[in-house]
């Protein structure tokens, strides 16, 4: 226990799995915590004369089952192994932590998700800028960037790290800027020292400076990146030769997509629904885990370079037209598997024999893939092929040295193929023919002694022995040594048996040592090819993404978009890629046209009933732009897109209760973020702005936001604005680049038919009660809502029933004019509206009917007093 507490003191915040014989044990608070997470038995045992310690453990071979559960529960786990062979040590066995597993630093396939990266992020709050770095130790990807806190927050949302480290003492700033959704760990300030980390990075990469990586000037970024290397050392992950480069994330290279847009467009998950997956999963047709991971990075970080986009689109177009060639390419890609993570396991010395065989098969497929890419006239495919190195020597070496179907446990042997090592082959012959030798000894001794029932067996106590039945024990030769007496027999050993036993057992032990030595030498030789293997993995994953786009385009009738340097977005017959794919069989998505520019049609105001498809239209426009700048074909008949640099969305309502933010507060925060960061190439999607507050507050805010977007002196951001505030349609008459559209419906026999077609002009009917009926609202509630609506319209019509259209026209006129006049008129209308809600009182309805028939001009004072008395009687006063 003293040894345990000494090791635990180094890792006080981790669950310490302490190896004792064939078990991993946990003690004290760790045991209480582990038993709860793993569902294992919690016991107590004596710890000295007057105390007890809690205890919980599991067999060492079950670690692959229990370790993932602890990590997924958000625990840090320190694995403490026996560092000496107990057979060769007297007294206490030396132990030490061989690995600290955290949510962001994991290597085991049973913990890692194949289709997504497991990034460890590091954030450094510098004096002028904030630095951030991302490392996926399972693939070797290493990125660095620096900028404002807002930019770092965007990158965190884009790459979604499993763990974030930052300097101690910055807790409040971290929470304010990045929220509380991240798993975090704090390190001392000195860990982030720039000079030390610059030197650490140069030493790791074997360079004199960081200029070759283009990050030499990123002082805060270097501080963050170096802290990651320190953290890997701290967690006992020192074999990271596969992390052989670091890339800069340049803000100017990628489309700005913040955390609000990621959530609102449901890029990686469908909000609030377990049955629906996110956009990235719906469009994913990749064949390898590394291809799927790259696809998600492309979704999170679309590019702005037309040259790079066209390079991708050219390959996609080839695969959509040359379908037979595409199928041949897919067949080879599917055989490669997760080459990236195999490479990382080579670097860390964790690769299993069967994974080496998979590497050989992958290289065979890569060789064929290179030939396929070279066999066409497409220059873009030739460019991909040039990046592939088939590594024939590595493939042949593995094929020569490893059994085709090896044991996956090196300590059990059966891994190294025959012909690799003569000594190993000789020892195998001894072990293989051991039974024949024993049979020869048995036949000879039976003939010599005349004992017919001799038997040679083996046990762990005294090795090989000869068993003689009691009926023949008088015939036993004198040189045999009796070792055990049983009820019906006796057991003997001989010098010959002991010598042969030593030879067989020695052969098995020597075979294991030789196999381990040869295997480690093979891994070291293969490790020299890690840079080439990583380049192969990058080409294969890129090709996998592009064939995925092509496959999707063929399945869903997507077309190639045209990207240009202009500022016009023109989408003809556009469709929502997710909704279209999830629609019931037999139903077709209704396509729509959207045209936006900065000269004539900058802002489109979209009105229409609930459930008509306004939100879907907004989202599909953003997703089509995003897909085009990923290099994918798009769900549209035609798409001509001027490069977009930022996509902003404010869609739907949500609370942030944990931080005391209401639906309206969240809406205003997101809206403020949009208005403060728009550019001339931004696209902005606003859905129902202002609905979280009172009607006139909401109209005022929405009106002012549209004015701001229209009149911005430097940025005419292209905007789609869906709203129920029909008063905003008047803005078309006042602002030249604001245009009114509506999503059409048809009312047939008091039933709504949603046509879902975007048409020019505004509409003024929300059909809210019809939607309530469709939703299954009790018929009594729907009927009562109709009655109340008629009463409200009657009062707005000043004692005469008027159509709701007239009411809206009257309300819309109130908004015209100056902001001050609109506010005053809105205030008066609100006072009237307060009185309307009392009309469901039957007494007030009778009073209304009494007053309605009075001709005030012909009423005498006496008649007026009598009428007032009648009204008093109605009230019961």
What would you note in describing this structure?
With 877 residues, the protein is α/β, with parallel strands linked by helices. α12 crosses α20. It has 31 helices and 27 strands. The strands form five sheets. The chain has a seven-stranded mixed β-sheet with strand order 13-23-24-25-21-26-27, sandwiched between helices. It has a six-stranded mixed β-sheet with strand order 3-4-2-1-5-6, with helices on both faces. A six-stranded mixed β-sheet has the order 11-10-7-8-9-12, sandwiched between helices. β14 (455-459) and β15 (463-469) form a beta hairpin. It folds into seven domains: 2-101, MutS, DNA mismatch repair protein, domain I, CATH 3.40.1170; 120-253, MutS, connector domain (Nucleotidyltransferase, domain 5, 2-Layer Sandwich), CATH 3.30.420; 284-391 and 532-556, MutS, DNA mismatch repair protein, Chain A, domain 3, CATH 1.10.1420.10; 422-521, MutS, DNA mismatch repair protein, Chain A, domain 3, CATH 1.10.1420.10; 562-771, P-loop containing nucleotide triphosphate hydrolases (Rossmann fold); 778-839, no CATH class; 841-877. Mean pLDDT is 86; it is low at 654-660, 797-820 and 822-838. The termini are far apart.
The chain-level mean pLDDT equals: 86
Rg over alpha carbons = 38 Å
Helical content band: 40-55%
CATH superfamily of the largest domain: P-loop containing nucleotide triphosphate hydrolases
Q: How far from one another are the termini?
A: 87 Å
Query: What composes the largest sheet?
Result: 7 strands, mixed
The assigned structural class equals: alpha/beta
Estimate the global geometry from the Cα principal axes. elongated
CATH topology of the largest domain: Rossmann fold
* Poorly predicted spans: 654-660, 797-820, 822-838
* Proper CATH architecture of the largest domain: 3-Layer(aba) Sandwich
Number of helices: 31
Tell me how many strands there are.
27
Q: List the domain count as a whole number.
A: 7
Strand content: 15-25%
CATH class descriptor of the largest domain:
Alpha Beta
Kindly report the spatial arrangement of strands forming the biggest sheet.
Answer: 13-23-24-25-21-26-27
């Amino acid at each position: 226990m003293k040894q345990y507490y000494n090791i635990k003191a180094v890792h006080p915040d981790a669950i310490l799995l302490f190896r004792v014989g064939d078990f991993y044990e946990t003690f004290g608070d760790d045991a209480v915590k582990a038993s709860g997470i793993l569902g294992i038995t919690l016991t107590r045992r004596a710890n000295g004369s007057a105390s007890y310690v809690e205890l919980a453990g599991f067999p060492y071979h079950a670690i692959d089952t229990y370790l993932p559960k602890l990590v997924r529960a958000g625990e840090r786990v320190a694995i403490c192994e026996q560092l000496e062979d107990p057979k060769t040590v007297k007294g206490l066995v030396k132990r030490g932590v061989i690995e600290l597993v955290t949510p962001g630093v994991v290597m085991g396939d049973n913990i890692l998700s194949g289709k997504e990266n497991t990034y460890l992020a590091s954030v450094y709050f510098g004096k002028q800028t904030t630095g951030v770095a991302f490392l996926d130790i399972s693939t070797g990807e290493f990125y660095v960037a620096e900028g404002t806190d807002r930019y770092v927050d965007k990158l965190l949302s884009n790459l979604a790290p499993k763990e974030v480290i930052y300097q101690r003492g910055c807790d409040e700033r971290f929470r304010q800027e990045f929220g509380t959704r991240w798993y975090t760990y704090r390190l001392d300030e000195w860990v982030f020292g720039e000079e030390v980390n610059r030197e650490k990075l140069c030493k790791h990469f074997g360079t004199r400076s960081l200029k070759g990586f283009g990050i030499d000037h990123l002082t805060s970024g270097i501080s963050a990146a170096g802290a990651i290397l320190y953290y890997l050392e701290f967690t006992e992950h020192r074999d990271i030769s596969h992390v052989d480069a670091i890339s800069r994330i340049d803000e100017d290279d990628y489309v700005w997509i913040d955390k609000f847009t990621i959530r609102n467009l449901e890029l990686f998950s469908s909000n609030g629904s377990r049955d629906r997956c996110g956009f990235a999963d719906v469009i994913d047709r990749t064949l390898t885990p590394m291809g799927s991971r790259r696809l998600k990075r492309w979704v999170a970080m679309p590019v702005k370079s037309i040259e790079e986009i066209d390079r991708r689109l050219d390959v996609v177009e080839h695969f959509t037209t040359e379908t037979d060639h595409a199928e041949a390419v897919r067949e080879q890609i599917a055989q490669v598997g997760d080459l990236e993570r195999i490479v990382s396991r080579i670097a860390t010395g964790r690769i299993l024999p069967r994974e080496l065989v998979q590497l050989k098969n992958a290289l065979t497929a890569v060789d064929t893939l290179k030939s396929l890419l070279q066999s066409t006239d497409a220059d873009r495919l030739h460019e991909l092929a040039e990046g592939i190195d088939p590594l024939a020597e590595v493939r042949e070496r593995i094929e020569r040295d490893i059994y085709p179907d090896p044991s996956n446990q090196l300590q059990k042997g059966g891994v190294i193929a025959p012909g690799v090592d003569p000594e190993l082959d000789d020892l195998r012959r001894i072990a293989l023919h051991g039974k024949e030798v024993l049979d020869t000894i048995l036949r000879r001794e039976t003939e010599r002694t005349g004992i017919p029932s001799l038997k040679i067996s083996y046990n762990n106590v005294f090795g090989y022995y000869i068993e003689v039945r009691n009926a023949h024990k008088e015939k036993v030769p004198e040189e045999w040594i009796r070792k055990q007496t049983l009820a019906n027999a006796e057991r003997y050993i001989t010098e010959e048996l002991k010598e042969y036993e030593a030879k067989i057992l020695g052969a098995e032990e020597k075979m294991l040592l030789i196999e381990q030595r040869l295997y480690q030498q093979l891994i070291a030789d293969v490790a020299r090819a890690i840079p080439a293997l990583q380049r192969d993995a990058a080409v294969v994953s890129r090709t996998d993404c592009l064939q995925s786009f092509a496959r999707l385009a063929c399945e869903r009738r997507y077309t190639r978009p045209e990207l240009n340097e202009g500022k016009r977005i023109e989408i003809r017959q556009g469709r929502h890629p997710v909704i279209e794919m999830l629609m019931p069989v037999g139903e077709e998505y209704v396509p729509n046209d959207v045209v936006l520019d900065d000269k004539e049609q900058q802002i489109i105001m979209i009105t229409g009933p609930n459930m008509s498809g306004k939100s879907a239209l907004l989202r599909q426009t953003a997703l089509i732009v995003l897909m085009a700048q990923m290099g994918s074909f798009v769900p549209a008949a035609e798409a001509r897109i001027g490069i977009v640099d930022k996509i902003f969305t404010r869609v739907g309502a949500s609370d942030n209760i944990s931080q005391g933010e209401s639906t309206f507060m969240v809406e205003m925060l997101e809206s403020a973020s949009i208005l403060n960061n728009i550019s001339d190439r931004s696209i902005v999607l606003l859905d129902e702005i202002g609905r979280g507050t009172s009607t006139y507050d909401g109209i005022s805010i929405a009106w002012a936001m549209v004015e701001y977007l229209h009149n911005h002196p430097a940025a005419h951001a292209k905007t789609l604005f869906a709203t129920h505030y029909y008063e905003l349609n008047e803005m078309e008459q006042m602002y030249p680049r604001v245009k009114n559209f509506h999503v059409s419906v048809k009312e047939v026999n008091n039933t709504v038919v949603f046509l879902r077609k975007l048409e020019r002009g505004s509409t003024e009917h929300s059909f809210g009660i019809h939607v309530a009926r469709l939703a299954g609202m009790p018929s009594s509630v729907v009927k009562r809502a109709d009655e109340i609506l008629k009463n409200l319209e009657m009062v707005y019509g000043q004692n005469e029933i008027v159509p709701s259209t007239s009411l809206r026209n009257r309300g819309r006129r109130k908004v015209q004019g100056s902001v001050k006049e609109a506010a005053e008129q809105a205030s008066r209308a609100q006072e009237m509206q307060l009185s309307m809600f009392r009309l469901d009182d039957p007494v007030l309805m009778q009073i209304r009917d009494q007053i309605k028939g009075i001709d005030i001009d012909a009423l005498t004072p006496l008649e007026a007093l009598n009428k007032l008395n009648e009204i008093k009687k109605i009230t019961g006063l």
